[in-house]
From TrEMBL:
Coiled coil: none annotated. The chain crosses the membrane at residues 12-31, 43-62, 74-94, 114-137, 149-168, 188-213, 220-241, 253-273. It comes from Enterobacter cloacae. InterPro entries: Diguanylate_Cyclase (IPR050469), GGDEF_dom (IPR000160), MASE4 (IPR033424), Nucleotide_cyclase (IPR029787), Rev_trsase/Diguanyl_cyclase (IPR043128). CDD domains: GGDEF. It is an enzyme of class 2 (transferase). One of its GO terms (cellular component) is plasma membrane. Its cofactor is Mg(2+). Residues 319-453 form the GGDEF domain. This is diguanylate cyclase.
Length: 453
C-alpha cells in the first residue's frame, strides 16, 4: 500500500512538473511571437476556432468509435458528447464573425455572442468530463441495458439542451438576453469578469480535482485530460486578467487551448499505435503457437508439410531438397526407467540440438513422439548425409554430465535421408522414402545414417 501511494504521489509530482514546464514553454513562445508580430490579424481568432472545431470533432468521433467497439467503457461516450457539444458551440462562435472571410470588414463581429458560446462550451465540457470520471469508476461493473441507455440519453439531452440554451441567450433569439461583452467598446461586462469567469475557473478546478482523484493520472489518456483541465484554468485566468475581447490574452488563451487539444489527439494516435502493436504481437504469438510443437518449440507436422510442398514446387537438379527423418533409439526405455518428465527433457534437448545444427532457412519439425524431421533447402544428398552424420555424432557424444542432467544416459539416433531433384514428387512421398531409409538404419544396428536408394 505504501509503495502504491508513493507511486501515485510520484505521478502527481511528475504531472505538475510537466504542466509547469509546458505552460512555461508556451508562455515563452507566445511572448517571443508578440515581440516579433506586434499586432495580430483579425483572421487569427476565427481561424484558430476552425482548427479547434475540427480537432474537437475528431476527438468526439474517435471516442464514439472506441465506445462502439467496447460498450463497457461508457465513460467514453461522455467524453465524445463533451467534444461534440464543444464543436457545436464553436459553430455558434464562428457565426459571430459573419464577415471573417472578407478582409477589413470586422465591425459586424458580435463578441457578446462569441463569449456566450464560449461560456456554455466550458459548461458542457466540464460537466461531461466530470461525468466521464464518475463513469470510469464503474467501468468494471456491468450495467443493465435500461441504465446504459438512460445514461447515454441523459448525456445527449444535456448536450443538446446546453447548445439550445446558448442559442437562445445569443442574439439569434430574443427569448433570453445575456450581456457579457459590450460590442461597441469590446469591454467585458461585470457579469463576465466578476462572476461567470470566476465560476468557470472554480468549475474547472473541481473537474481537475475529480479527474486526478479518480484516475490517479494512471495513463497517457488521463494525463491528456488532466492537462486539458489545467490549460482551461490557465486560459480563463488569463481572460480574467484581460479587460476586453480584443485583448492579447484572448489570443493567448486560444493558443493554449489549441496546444492542449493537439496533445490529446497525439495521445489518441499513440493509443491506436499501441493497440496495433499489441494486437500484432498477439497475432504473432498466436500464429507461432499454431505452427509450433508446444513441447519442443520445433515446427509441427502441418507446417512442415506445407513448407515442404512449397519447396518441392521449385525443386530441380540444380536446386535439390533433402529430407532427413530421424528417430531416437530405444526411447521407450527412457520413459519406462526414468519417467515421462525425463523423457520430455530428452526430447527438448534433441530439439535444441537439431535447431542449432541447421540453417535459418531450413525447417526442423517434430512429427511424432520421438520422431523428428528436417527439410534442407538447396541441399544435395551428399551434403544432407554430412549434416545428418554430424548431428548423430554430436548427440552420441553427450552423457548425463555433459548434458547437465537433461540426458539420463547416452542417447543415439537413427536417421534416413531422401533428396528430391524434381517437382514431380509429393511431400508425403519424400517423407515416406526418408522414413524407409530411417527404418533400414534401425534394422541394421541403429545409431547410423542411411541414404534412400
Amino acid at each position: 500500500m505504501l509503495a502504491m501511494n508513493n507511486c501515485v504521489k510520484n505521478r502527481y509530482f511528475l504531472f505538475c512538473i510537466g504542466c509547469i514546464a509546458v505552460i512555461g514553454l508556451l508562455q515563452g513562445l507566445f511572448l517571443e511571437l508578440v515581440e516579433r508580430v506586434p499586432s495580430f490579424s483579425p483572421l487569427l481568432f476565427p481561424t484558430l476556432t476552425i482548427f479547434l472545431l475540427v480537432f474537437h470533432l475528431f476527438i468526439a468521433c474517435f471516442m464514439a468509435m472506441k465506445y462502439w467497439c467496447d460498450r463497457r467503457r461508457l465513460y467514453l461516450i461522455a467524453i465524445a458528447l463533451a467534444f461534440a457539444g464543444s464543436a457545436m458551440m464553436m459553430v455558434g462562435t464562428l457565426s459571430s464573425f459573419p464577415s471573417w472571410l472578407a478582409l477589413y470588414q470586422f465591425n459586424a463581429v458580435n463578441y457578446n455572442d462569441a463569449m456566450i458560446f464560449f461560456m456554455f462550451r466550458h459548461l458542457i465540457m466540464a460537466v461531461l468530463i466530470i461525468l466521464s470520471a464518475l463513469l470510469y469508476t464503474i467501468r468494471d461493473y456491468p450495467l443493465s441495458r435500461p441504465a446504459h441507455i438512460s445514461i447515454v440519453t441523459g448525456g445527449f439531452i444535456f448536450t443538446v439542451s446546453m447548445v439550445a440554451l446558448a442559442w437562445f441567450c445569443s442574439s439569434h433569439s430574443s427569448l433570453l438576453l445575456l450581456d457579457l461583452v459590450d460590442n461597441e467598446t469590446r469591454q467585458f461586462m461585470v457579469l463576465w469578469s466578476q462572476a461567470i469567469n470566476i465560476l468557470l475557473i472554480v468549475l474547472w478546478i473541481v473537474t481537475l480535482a475529480t479527474l486526478m482523484f479518480i484516475t490517479r493520472v494512471r495513463n497517457l489518456f488521463w494525463v491528456g485530460g488532466n492537462f486539458l483541465c489545467v490549460c482551461y484554468i490557465v486560459t480563463l485566468t488569463m481572460l480574467l486578467a484581460g479587460g476586453h475581447a480584443e485583448d492579447i490574452a484572448w489570443y493567448r488563451a486560444r493558443l493554449f487551448e489549441t496546444v492542449a487539444t493537439l496533445l490529446i489527439i497525439f495521445v489518441l494516435l499513440y493509443d491506436v499505435f499501441r493497440l496495433y502493436r499489441d494486437s500484432h504481437l498477439k497475432y504473432q504469438q498466436s500464429y507461432q503457437n499454431s505452427i509450433r510443437d508446444p513441447l519442443t518449440r520445433l515446427y509441427n507436422r502441418s507446417y512442415f508439410y506445407e513448407s515442404l510442398n512449397q519447396a518441392l514446387d521449385i525443386a530441380k537438379a540444380s536446386r535439390p531438397v533433402s529430407v532427413i527423418v530421424s528417430d531416437l533409439d530405444r526411447f521407450k526405455r527412457i520413459n519406462d526407467n526414468y519417467g515421462h518428465l525425463q523423457g520430455d527433457k530428452v526430447l527438448q534437448f534433441v530439439a535444441h540440438l537439431l535447431m542449432d545444427s541447421v540453417r535459418p532457412q531450413d525447417i526442423a519439425a517434430r512429427i511424432g513422439g520421438e520422431e523428428f524431421v528436417l527439410m534442407l533447402a538447396n541441399t544435395s544428398s551428399e551434403e544432407a548425409y554430412k549434416v545428418a552424420e554430424r548431428i548423430r555424432l554430436n548427440l552420441s557424444g553427450f552423457d548425463k554430465a555433459s548434458s547437465e542432467g537433461q540426458l539420463p544416459e547416452p542417447i543415439t539416433i537413427s536417421m534416413g535421408v531422401f533428396t528430391a531433384t524434381s517437382s514431380g514428387i509429393t511431400a508425403e512421398e519424400c517423407v515416406e522414402s526418408a522414413d524407409k531409409a530411417m527404418y533400414e538404419a534401425k534394422e541394421t544396428g541403429r545409431n547410423r545414417v542411411v541414404v534412400f536408394k
